[in-house]
Amino acid sequence: MRQTQKVMLAFSEATTSELNEILEHRFFKEKKSPKSKSKTSLSKQQSTAPMSAIKQENSGTKNIYEIIKQMRLERNAPVDLVGPQKCFDKDKDIETQRFQILTSLMLSPQTKDDVTSKCANRLLEYTMNDIANMDEPELIKLIYEVNFNVTKAKRIKDLAQLAIYKGMPKTFEETIKIKGVGEKIALLYMQVAFQRVEGIPIDVNMIRICNRIPILKEKSPTKLRKFLESQFEHKEWGEINETLVGFGQQICLPKPKCDQCKLKDICEYYKLQNTSD
Ligand code: SF4
């Protein structure tokens, strides 16, 4: 009997409490000690971590952001055209759309947007049931271009099975419990699938940019998120990820195109690179 069939049989024969235990073990991350903040709501984290504890290194964050926004108006970046949050079929029912959005986001870590988009679009041809019942090697073949495709295939198949038996997650707290989902993905999922902006999703491009200029010298995505959230009004939070990610894809790349950048005059990284000994 195939593994999926075994799981389906286990589901069909289980009582409600047994089913919850199976789901908990198979699809969700292990529970951490009460001290851990990874699964608590962002609002709780914010209330227990005063902003005064976060060092503000640049009071001109909003001015810098406005200059980046101007640069972003000049041309589209991959995130604008093929960002993972854009790979879903608006003609499908809402539950399917939510599944497609979260699947696409789960494919995206450590992978370029155009590659993620190619694989996510391939999966749009398959229903949630198809993916829940698909053999893992077949699923890996469909997403082979993304990095860590073996692990991601397993997580996506698990998500399909979870969605069939429990429905797609509807809150940040439910979403971040799922294996393969971190803070950035859960926040983007809430934003795209539910139009609820619960925080600023932080990605590797944003960390690089913020440390170079610097907006804030900080490698922790959570600390950077809290800092940025303190600098902008809530109504602005929803656009910040896409604006900064696009800037990181177009100009402030790992090998930056500083000659095209309007922040040269204030950028610490640029000054360091262009200071003669
Ligand atoms: S000057 Fe160079 S390093 Fe600094 S923000 Fe612009 S592109 Fe990035």
Automatic annotation (TrEMBL):
Residues 29-56 are annotated as: Disordered. Residues 107-250 form the HhH-GPD domain. InterPro entries: Endonuclease3_FeS-loop_motif (IPR003651), HhH-GPD_domain (IPR003265). GO terms for biological process: base-excision repair, AP site formation; nucleotide-excision repair. GO terms for cellular component: nucleus. The keyword DNA damage applies. It holds the Pfam family HhH-GPD. The keyword Ribonucleoprotein does not apply. GO terms for molecular function: 4 iron, 4 sulfur cluster binding; DNA-(apurinic or apyrimidinic site) endonuclease activity; oxidized pyrimidine nucleobase lesion DNA N-glycosylase activity. Keywords: DNA damage, DNA repair, Glycosidase, Hydrolase. Residues 39-48 have a biased composition (Low complexity). Belongs to the Nth/MutY family. This is HhH-GPD domain-containing protein. It comes from Paramecium octaurelia. The lineage of its organism: Eukaryota, Sar, Alveolata, Ciliophora, Intramacronucleata.
